[in-house]
Amino acid sequence: MMTLKVNGRDHQIDADPDTPLLYVLRDDLELNAAKFGCGLGQCGACTVIVDGKAVLSCVTPLLLLDGKQVTTLEGLGSIEAPAPIQRAFMEEQAAQCGYCIAGMMMRAQALLQKNPKPSDDEIRAELEPHLCRCGTHMRILRAVHRASRLMDTAEASPAGNGSGR
Amino acid sequence: MTKPGIIGSAVAALLIGGTVAAFAIAWRPAIAAIDSPPPQSFGRALVKRGRDLAAIGNCAECHTVRGGKSFAGGLPVPTPFGTIFSSNITPDAETGIGRWSEAAFRRAMRSGVDRDGQHLYPTFPYDHFTNVTDEDDRALYAFLMTREPVRATARVNQLSFPLDQRFVIAGWKLLFLRRGTWQPDAAQSAEWNRGAYLVEGLAHCGACHTPRNALGAERASAPFAGGDVDNWHAYAINGQSPSPVPWDADALFAYLRDGWHPDHGVARGPMAQVVSNMSSVPDIDIRAIATFMAGVFGAPTPDRKRRGDEVLAQVKLAPVQASNTNAEGAAIYAAACATCHETNRPLPYGGVNLALSTAISGPDARNTANIVLSGVRPVEGERSPIMPGFANSMNDGQISALLNYLRSRFSNRPAWPGIEKTVGMARRTQTVLLQTSAGPNNAPADTTQRDKP
């Protein structure tokens, strides 16, 4: 058994220490925002935030998470009260099939926490590890800029300390 | 004349003589500025040849910075003496080489002096380029003078006194710049000689792969014995090569041609750009380089050959679990690495079996640490190998545990000393290359582009 802190709560997890975080999130905790894409850390769909940084959960074994704060998209906001990053993606209609979007939002969130006013180039460079096959890249870029503006007025969801939900 | 007077005169004479001699050594005249020759004045075939030569010379890697235009300079090159910024070699009249004549260009290549007569720092590897023929310099000049002119002023180097004084370089040249370090060898084939000319000259392989002395010059006594560049280790590419499977001419050709080899893995770090540039070079020159370098590596000793065969046989078998002395490293490897590195998906898109990795059998852990932290960036707009970086998910202790495990399981060499320090250093520097280099995407790997000027 190990204790895993996700979205501000402690969970007792009964799994091998080399189990990827993604499996625990989806199968044990039923937090399904992070997606299984390639399972090899090459597509970005499984991205979550660990201690304020974007991490590929499919290649992150549990044993690396001792004492760390995990934040998933569910931890940023809800349907009733979406976080700025979620509102921005909805308002820009940045999702088509939506499979990559949770991962995109998590890395964009981590970027905005570190750099509240990123340039186009900085967003592109940061989101480079994420694949989107629908091709909504231009809307995603706009959504990240919109989220940056929304965060000026709303309080950014503090994913760093995991006390979202 | 009194005795002190004689001594005084002698000292004065020596000083004057010394100054005159120093002036003669250090002073170089300016070469008259010209009006930029129009691009049409260069023949298409000449420009195309210059393009291939520039790719062999890897000019774009140092003379391009991320976010900047090709050949417009500005890349910070860290050296033990300070940081040197690469110059603008586009034909811009004010900030580039637009007003340089071919003679001025050739002088820079041959003896490291710019058009104004200033000595250039040997970060520009004229100790190799001095071997380039007039004919090849002409083609390189034609290629560069037909690029898009870019206005970009060179940044000021960060060097402390006296190294910021360019006359000091004249002394360095006196000690270390040797003309004609390469001479054809009539006993060898034309292909070998072509390879030797390229390797010792334009390709300047030794600039990274040969260790340097305290004054920053390549050690003539240890050619290709392994060097350091920007917190990366450039492996020995002679008989001391740490590669688990010995290299031969065919493997070298395939690796330089495609950027990877099934028995050795994928080029990454500074070498990724070298092979990316090479992709536009004709087979015949790559074959020549491979032939010459195979001779430098030499035939493997029976022991090395046996070890190579064992490793190749071992990677085909089911994985063997190593002893459980490093449970943390083993678990990290199983969960984060083995999914790519042990599934036998073919290279270059699958991960190489780490028993074949030169990095893990290498003399220090820097390259492995750099790659684990930063991964392998994909080439923009192309199918290419990719590996995620783990800087965000592993702390230094965890990466050290992993590296220790990899070393003990996948090499037959002793543990790396001071591994936590190496990892900490790699994380702090994140290597200038990874932050500022334009990345391996300058030369079109697309073969249909190869005939374009």
Give a written overview of the molecule.
The complex is a heterodimer of chains A (165) and B (453). By secondary structure, chain A is of the alpha+beta class. Chain A has 2 domains: 2-75, Beta-grasp domain (Ubiquitin-like (UB roll)); 77-153, [2Fe-2S]-binding domain (DNA polymerase, domain 1), CATH 1.10.150.120. Chain A has 6 helices and 5 strands, in the order ββαβββααααα. In chain A, a hairpin with a 2-residue loop joins strand 3 and strand 4. The two termini of chain A are 24 Å apart. In chain B, helix 2 (44-57) crosses helix 6. The radius of gyration of chain B is 24 Å and the shape is globular. Chain B has 3 domains: 24-176, no CATH class; 190-301; 326-436, Cytochrome Bc1 Complex, Chain D, domain 2 (Orthogonal Bundle). By secondary structure, chain B is mostly helical. In chain B, the strands form 3 sheets. A 3-stranded antiparallel sheet of chain B has the order 1-2-3, with no helix packed on it. The A-B interface holds A 17-20, 39-42, 50, 53-56, 59-61, 63-64, 121, 128-129 and B 67, 328, 331-332, 334-336, 339-340, 377-378, 386-388, 390, 392-394, 398.
